[in-house]
Amino acid sequence: MIVFLLLSGVLARWLSLENVERSAVLVLLEDEARGDGAAMLAALHGCDRQCRANVTADARRLKRPGRVEILAYQSPTAYSLSSAEGLTRVAWKSSLRRLPVVQCVKVARSGNALTGLTIRLLAVSAEIPDTADC
Description:
By secondary structure, this protein is α+β, with helices and mostly antiparallel strands. It has helices at about 1-35, 35-45, 50-60, and strands at about 70-75, 80-95, 100-110, 115-125. The chain is about 40% helix and about 30% strand. Strands 1-2-3-4 form a 4-stranded antiparallel sheet. A hairpin with a 3-residue loop joins strand 3 (about 100-110) and strand 4. Helix 1 (about 1-35) runs antiparallel to helix 2 and helix 2 (about 35-45) packs across helix 3. The N and C termini lie far apart (about 45 Å).
């Protein structure tokens, strides 16, 4: 019984991390849609000078009114049991605009499912074509 409870706890922790990652990306996109480059930079870890310039430009160019809606989310790190890093492809749109925006967000996970995983967002790309991969 104790083993079952331990395994259930580890499994629940692991499955909840996908939501943590997706929520962090959503907050980043909401900041972007508001045109808030400073908030975007605060969410990104280790963003260098080129990254900061891209974020500032994205915040201006991709500012949109309305609520951010994620249309598609493809993450290579979403179900990782240990440390991983990858580019998450996210398609989103504003509730007041028809056309979607597709971007890549560099996500890093550190730790493991037993001791805990940490999610960090490292970078966000400029808009990419709808059919492009990250």
